[in-house]
Specification:
Elements: E1 13-14, E2 17-18, E3 26-28, H1 39-49, E4 51-54, H2 60-76, H3 96-99, H4 103-111, H5 114-121, H6 124-133, E5 137-139, E6 144-148, E7 171-176, E8 187-190, H7 197-200, H8 227-233, E9 237-239, E10 247-251, E11 256-258, E12 269-278
Parallel strand pairs: 3-9
Antiparallel strand pairs: 1-2, 4-10, 5-12, 6-12, 7-10, 7-12, 8-9, 8-11
Helix pairs in contact: 2-5
Amino acid sequence: MAIQTLVLPETLSSNGNAFDLSHETFGELRDANSLLGNTGALHERFAEDGYLLLRNYLDKEKVLAARRELIGKLDEIGLIDRSKPFMEAVFSGDTSGISATDRQKFARHLRSGPALKEICFSGRVMEFFAQFFGDEVLHLDYIWVRNVRRGAATGCHFDWVYMGRGTRKLMTAWIPQGAVPLADGPLAILHGSHKWHELQNTYGKIDVDKDKEKNPYGGGWLTKNPNQPQQRYGGRWLTTEFEPGDLLVFGMFTLHCAIDNESAQNRIRLSTDTRYQLASEPADERWIGDDPFGHGMM
């Protein structure tokens, strides 16, 4: 499905900053399904694009089971409008349950469900990385759960600044936990950014825990404005509409962000980030174990 087949709004934005939707600067992610089973071709495409999109690759019913599990946990603290279809994950508008909740404890609860772990740490996702790496695979144990309400988006960043204490060959799997149309704020990738050595040697040297006192970038994000790196370095922002079962894989130095969630139905966008590497290579200790330490380890 090419980007011109999508019904685009007049604007798409990230953190309120409108993308230039002209063909030269904006396009659609291309899928790599035809390359499955050909490891060399997958490596070549990954080296060229900095990402691999696999349509309908994961077990759809298992993804929907994980979605149902996540929505149920959000419902426990009152975030789900029960007058609407449950699986739509429509925000209730009531945040009182959040303020009364231990956020760290709830975050552990959110990422620890068996259905979520099954889709992230077994089956086809592990099969893909075993094929891609050609040897035993290790996954980082932490599951980054994104439940993004209307008006919110993630800024432009490399994943490396958050988890750069192990192998540089670490890879991210972004899994939409349900359908994510353009209006709900899918992920966008700046094509070619994985080849920008200047940015890797400046912003990409940051460790958000060790360098938080002297980090000129103000945390882990490079910027909230997707136009800034594009105007300096070039490239096209790429996105698409996702369906349950889709899998998007990219490297530590692929610049990405999220499009603003502008859901007219007030849906919460649900997705997860998980990381994978060769088991024989060093791993970032912050994200390993039954209850990973996470950020704050100096």
